[in-house]
């Protein structure tokens, strides 16, 4: 991996106000690295979707449980890690929301967006850590 140009770790409770902390960080990154619209949109979307999933599915809405977000940026990629306190999940078991009867279900849409916008997305640990890599 090439030299890190930026890194930050955030901890916040599972409340939607925590998204403001993430969006503030995205704004800082946009300005520091002069991200174009597409990269900025991808970063904001994958971060918001993954943090919302951590709030709702991982921590099951329990505001006393924290979410951890780690971001690092090198010359070639943006790396995100979102961790919740939940039981974890198998990322490959979530059905595609654009196939068959799944089109009527809300489940899996956020993960579909994340996978569509990044170059890599996988889980670690017991499945409660999502790692996302965006090309810079």
Task: Report on this structure.
The chain is of the alpha+beta class and 136 residues long. Helices cover 35% and strands 28% of the residues. The chain has 3 helices and 5 strands; from the N terminus they run E-H-H-E-E-H-E-E. A 5-stranded antiparallel beta sheet has the order 1-2-3-5-4, covered by helices on one side. Strand 4 (120-124) and strand 5 (129-135) form a beta hairpin. Helix 1 packs antiparallel against helix 2 (37-58). The longest helix has 22 residues, at 37-58. It is globular, with a radius of gyration of 15 Å. 25% of the residues are buried.
What is the rounded distance between the termini?
13 Å
Helix content: 25-40%
Global geometry: globular
Rg on CA atoms, Å: 15 Å
Widest beta sheet: strand line-up? 1-2-3-5-4
Give the low-pLDDT segments.
none
Tell me the structural class. Answer: alpha+beta
